[in-house]
Each structure stands twice: as structure tokens, then as C-alpha cells.
């Protein structure tokens, strides 16, 4: 969010949160630094009051981000908040934990042992995608120049499905890349590999395959894309690599479907990112990117930071940030192991299947996602009723549930959907309560007499994510 002076409301925060226990002499100014300090307890209480009526994180079915960690994980996170991840010399043990995480994830993604994979933590998938994208751009430039292509004649381009997450649009705008968005296949709700080649040319830095499209939770057919590019690359002046944006699927698919081939087992997959704070089960602030081999990470992008009297190679956009999320990621790997992650994700998938069944049984909707991919339930309204999905979101929000309603991306944007992201902390009893509330909300809308808008009314409103 960008804020400006126009965003100010004139009121002051009034009085003390518990005025009979503690009194504060003056109102608290909202947009100016208070003149005098106040006690820590008072500041704490004032703030917790200010935050009181925010949504309940665990009732938020919109976000992929982790909303629960165990008390022991929270303890280690809070004890390590002060560690700066970039100070490798001061915190060599923390650096070692990051190293272990990179190695663990590389194995989950089947990085070939015969090559020298490289990877790093990031603040999230957005930073990880920027790094993966930049590496492809720099590598393309060298290869294109060597092949005698005039690199100034046209902008380099990136091929991706129209179901991309906004971080790729940012990447293309910030680094001057033409985005070639392939319309999502209406049938599969993902990128159809057959469409890819008509978007690829000598200026293509890479194709991005998405393991878990944000809109629907569907996986792109990365094996299919790889096959098509293998044939293309045989005679291409500049071979086209694949980066897999596995923000959500990268720490889900290896546990639920280890046999699914989408990762470094495919020869054109040169880099992969994921968000540790999605199905890696860590609170927001952690992502990972890994390159198949050092060949795919141009040296110009690597900087050295001091480490125990020597230096250590790093690649990052941010510099200082807390190391606690890296430690939280390692906590989960240690605590859960392979079988623990598998069990947690299987339970989450079962909940998604239960919710999908609930939605289907009402008879009002068509299911668009596929809980065989991410544990995401996605559907559109198909019955001829007086209410819309926006109305249903409003009804659910009255019961505390945050369910986003939004149009699919360009060219499919006449389809309005609901999407539930099931996460590890969405328990069976919560799912059962939700399904009762869902059915009751539909009944209320069916019985309502006050719905006045026309069904053709378009535009996103209500809860969004
Ligand atoms: C496919 C995809 N890529 C990238 C991102 C950005 O991830 P992050 O929030 O970790 O920056 C998301 C977030 O939802 C996503 O779904």
C-alpha cells in the first residue's frame, strides 16, 4: 500500500484503553509523533485496542500465508527476532541453518547431485521470483550476444500464463521485460503447453511454469512445457529455460505427490522458488530460490558479505532483515520431518475435499479448481438466483469468515469465483462449522427480499486479498 496525506481521517485516538485503570492525559494524535513518551503497558493496551476488530487470521480463507505456528516455534521465533540474517559473521550458526534448509529443499526438488545447485532464502516468493527472473535475463543477454543477436533491437520477453501472480508483472516492469501472457486454458484453468511456442522467440529469457496458480490452485503442466521446449531448444539460437514459480506448491507437492514430475528432474527447469510462509508452514517473511547449477546464476549477480574473517557469496535484493523466519523454517523441518509434513498436508487436503463436497452438494455451483493439486476450493455460481457471490461473501463475513470473490484474469474475467485456501490450521471442526454457516448463508440469501442490485453488476467489491 502507498499512503498519502489524503488518506488521513481527522480524528484523534481518544483516551486510554482502560480509562478507569490507567488514564492518559491527552488524546493520542493519529498522524503525528506524540510529543511525550507513554508507558509501555499503556502503549501495548492502546495498540491492542486499535487492532481489536481486525479479521481473525484463522478464519481467513483468502490467504495462502501461514496463520498458525506451534508455541515452541513461536518461542524460538521471538527469541531470535533480533538476529540479522545478513550478519553471517555474527550469526554463523544461523547461516548454517539457512545452508541446511537450502540443501533440504534442493533434495525435495530433486536437484541433480552431479551438478552444483545453489540457493538462498528470501523475504518471500516475490523476491525469489525477482532473483530467478534476473538470473534468466542476464544469462539470456550473454547467450544472445554470443549468438549474434542484436539485443537492442527488441526488449527481452518472458512467457507466462495469464494466471500469473502480480510479482511477475512487477518483475517485468522493474526490469524492462516484455510480459507475454498466454491466456489460461478455460478447460484446465492453467497454461496449455501447446500454446507456448507461439509466444517464444530469440528474445525470450524464459518460460515461467506455475505450480499452483493463485486464482484456482491448479498446476501448470510443467512436464508438458519441458517437452515442448526440449524440442524447440534443439535448434534454437538461444535455448529457452524454465523457471518454476512454486510459491504454493513447492513445499506441498513433494510430500503429497512425490511422483509428480515438475522440478529439477526436468532438464529445462533451471530455477525454482517457493514461499516458506505458505505450505512451508512458517509465518510470513520467508521464501526460497534454488538454481539447478551455478551455470544458471550469472556471477555478476552475486555479491560477497563478510563471514568469519573471509567472505561469503550472497544474492538478495534486501539487505538487513530478521533471521527468525529462517530459524522457523528449520524448526519445522526438524520438528515434522518428511512424514510430519506429509501428514499435515494430507489432513489439509482432506478438509479441502470435504469443503468441495459441501459446495457441490448445494447444487448452486460449478467447481473450477481441483483439490488434487493445491488444497484450494474454487467455484462459480451457475444457478439462476437473485444473489451473487459477492452477496454470499458478505453473508459469510457477518459470521467472521473471509472468503474472497473476484473475476478470473483477463479474457476469462466474465467468470466470477470464490476461492477457499485450506491451510494446516483449518481444523475439521472449523470446516464443519464453516459448512453449516455456508449453507445457512445461502438459505438466508434465498429467503431475502431486499437484494436490489442487478445480476449483471460487475466489479470487485467486498472482501479482497
Ligand atoms: C504463484 C505465486 N507466485 C508468487 C507469489 C508471491 O508470494 P509472496 O507472497 O511469498 O511474495 C504468490 C503469492 O500468493 C503466488 O501465489
Q: Can you offer a commentary on this structure?
A:
This protein is an alpha/beta fold. It has two domains: 76-331, Aspartate Aminotransferase, domain 2, CATH 3.40.640; 347-447, Aspartate Aminotransferase, domain 1 (Alpha-Beta Complex), CATH 3.90.1150. It has helices spanning 40-50, 71-79, 92-108, 125-146, 166-174, 193-196, 222-233, 253-256, 324-362, 389-398, 428-447, and strands at residues 118-122, 157-161, 178-182, 204-210, 242-245, 269-275, 287-291, 303-307, 310-314, 365-367, 376-381, 405-407, 416-421. The strands form three sheets. The protein has a seven-stranded mixed β-sheet with strand order 1-7-6-5-4-2-3, sandwiched between helices. A four-stranded antiparallel β-sheet has the order 10-11-13-12. Helix 2 (71-79) packs antiparallel against helix 9 (324-362). It is globular and about 70 Å long. The structure holds pyridoxal-5'-phosphate. Pyridoxal-5'-phosphate (PLP) binds at residues 64, 124-126, 129, 165, 167, 210, 212, 214, 245, 247-248, 275, 287.
Amino acid at each position: 500500500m502507498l499512503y498519502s496525506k489524503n488518506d488521513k481521517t481527522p480524528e484523534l485516538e481518544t483516551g486510554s484503553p482502560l480509562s478507569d485503570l490507567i488514564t492518559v492525559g491527552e488524546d493520542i494524535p493519529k498522524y503525528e509523533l506524540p510529543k511525550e513518551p507513554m508507558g509501555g503497558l499503556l502503549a501495548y493496551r492502546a495498540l491492542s485496542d486499535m487492532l481489536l476488530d481486525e479479521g481473525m487470521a484463522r478464519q481467513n480463507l483468502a490467504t495462502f500465508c501461514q496463520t498458525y505456528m506451534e508455541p515452541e516455534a513461536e518461542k524460538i521465533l521471538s527469541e531470535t527476532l533480533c538476529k540479522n540474517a545478513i550478519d553471517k559473521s555474527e550469526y554463523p550458526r544461523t547461516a548454517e541453518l539457512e545452508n541446511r534448509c537450502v540443501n533440504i529443499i534442493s533434495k525435495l526438488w530433486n536437484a541433480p547431485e552431479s551438478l552444483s545447485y545453489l540457493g538462498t532464502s528470501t523475504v518471500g516468493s516475490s523476491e525469489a521470483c525477482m532473483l530467478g527472473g534476473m538470473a534468466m535475463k542476464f544469462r539470456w543477454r550473454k547467450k544472445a550476444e554470443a549468438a549474434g543477436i542484436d539485443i537492442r533491437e527488441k526488449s527481452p520477453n518472458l512467457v507466462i500464463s495469464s494466471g500469473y501472480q502480480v510479482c511477475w508483472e512487477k518483475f517485468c516492469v522493474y526490469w524492462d521485460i516484455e510480459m507475454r501472457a498466454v491466456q489460461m486454458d478455460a478447460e484446465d484453468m492453467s497454461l496449455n503447453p501447446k500454446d507456448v511456442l507461439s509466444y517464444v522467440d530469440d528474445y525470450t529469457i524464459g518460460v515461467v511454469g506455475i505450480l499452483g496458480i493463485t486464482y484456482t490452485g491448479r498446476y501448470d503442466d510443467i512436464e508438458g512445457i519441458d517437452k515442448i521446449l526440449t524440442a524447440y531448444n534443439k535448434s534454437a539460437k538461444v535455448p529457452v529455460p524454465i523457471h518454476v514459480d512454486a510459491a504454493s506448491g513447492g513445499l506441498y507437492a513433494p510430500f503429497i505427490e512425490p511422483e509428480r514430475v515438475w522440478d529439477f528432474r526436468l532438464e529445462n527447469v533451471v530455477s525454482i522458488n517457493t514461499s516458506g510462509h505458505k505450505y512451508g508452514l512458517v509465518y510470513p517473511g520467508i521464501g526460497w530460490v534454488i538454481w539447478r547449477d551455478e551455470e544458471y546464476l550469472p556471477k555478476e549477480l552475486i555479491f560477497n558479505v563478510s563471514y568469519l574473517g573471509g567472505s561469503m557469496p550472497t544474492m538478495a535484493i534486501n539487505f538487513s532483515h530478521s533471521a527468525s523466519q529462517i530459524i522457523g523454517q528449520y524448526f519445522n523441518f526438524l520438528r515434522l520431518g518428511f512424514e510430519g509434513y506429509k501428514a499435515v498436508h494430507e489432513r489439509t487436503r482432506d478438509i479441502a475435499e470435504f469443503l468441495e463436497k459441501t459446495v457441490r452438494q448445494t447444487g448452486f455451483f460449478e467447481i473450477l479448481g481441483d483439490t488434487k493439486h493445491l488444497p484450494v476450493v474454487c467455484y462459480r455460481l451457475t444457478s439462476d438466483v437473485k444473489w451473487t457471490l459477492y452477496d454470499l461473501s458478505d453473508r459469510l463475513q457477518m459470521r467472521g469468515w473471509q472468503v474472497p470473490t473476484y473475476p478470473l484474469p483477463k479474457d476469462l474475467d466474465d467468470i466470477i469465483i470464490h476461492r477457499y485456501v485450506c491451510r494446516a490450521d483449518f481444523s475439521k471442526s472449523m470446516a464443519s462449522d464453516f459448512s453449516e454457516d455456508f449453507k445457512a448463508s445461502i438459505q438466508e440469501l434465498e429467503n431475502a427480499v431486499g437484494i436490489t442490485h442487478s445480476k449483471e453488476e460487475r466489479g470487485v467489491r467486498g472482501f479482497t486479498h
